[in-house]
């Protein structure tokens, strides 16, 4: 372990039976679970003692075979590949919700460990589809920024299709109705998902206003208050791949940036307190998830509507996502 004021990695950890590690600099302490899909279960901003990740009411559950993504969903942030959303059949392979990298243990190794910079590389070969996913997590001494650089490889001699996303969820105490969203999106798509007590009417809208089920006009820059609804919409037509989420009063927020040419959508999921599995009115949270492919009906529908990625035979695709804490007012 390096000096306390420098960048460092703490390994040899377990959490509820999952292999874990910590990446840290003077601003951030980040818990990663290579043993559970490479999930990030803590993104702590030390100067304000604020953890930007959201935790489900039941917390992290020990691994049990045969459970679905939602059965074992602890909150936090997940990688999603090659299926986003509900169950799908792909080339005869049954893909569960957000299958399959989020449910697999990843190999990992330290690439760099210096006082000014640490890099961890994680890798996984998928079981049902012929892909390898590799990513590097980087922290430096230049600020509160995590950089994720990754690639997917098609290990087969045939082109393959896929959805690819980052499932970032936010909740209390960071998330409140005072929070605001700024983004480079130009369009909002509201689909026909059977998501329960819907807040918004299906249609295509110019960001940030959409029609509500209550007949009112809703401004998506404003995070809704707790209530009996849940919904999901899709942001697209990005001039720049980014969003900021934060509280204008405190000025504390998070900025997420990505290659919108690779991930041209951002799924905006709202779980405001609706009844039904697995939430049963116990949660108030949102997800802002950069994605290739939509809607949440899964890979088959994304292939049919042309939003799924194509990975050439023995080809690869690359992507960089950065997640930074910002202490500046967010308007809206």
Describe this structure in words.
The structure is a single chain. With 332 residues, the chain is mainly beta. The protein has one domain: Distorted Sandwich (Beta-galactosidase, Chain A, domain 5). 2% of the residues lie in helices and 46% in strands. The strands form six sheets. The protein has an eight-stranded antiparallel sheet, with no helix packed on it. The radius of gyration is 19 Å and the shape is globular. The chain starts with 7 loop residues before the first strand and ends in a 5-residue tail after the last strand.
Quick synopsis:
This protein is mainly β.
Question: Which helices and strands, and how do they pair?
Answer:
Layout: E1 8-15, E2 18-24, E3 28-33, E4 39-45, E5 50-51, E6 77-80, E7 88-90, E8 93-95, E9 107-114, E10 117-125, E11 131-140, E12 145-154, E13 160-162, E14 164-170, E15 180-183, E16 187-190, E17 203-206, E18 209-211, E19 217-219, E20 230-236, E21 242-246, E22 252-258, E23 265-271, E24 285-292, H1 299-304, E25 309-311, E26 316-327
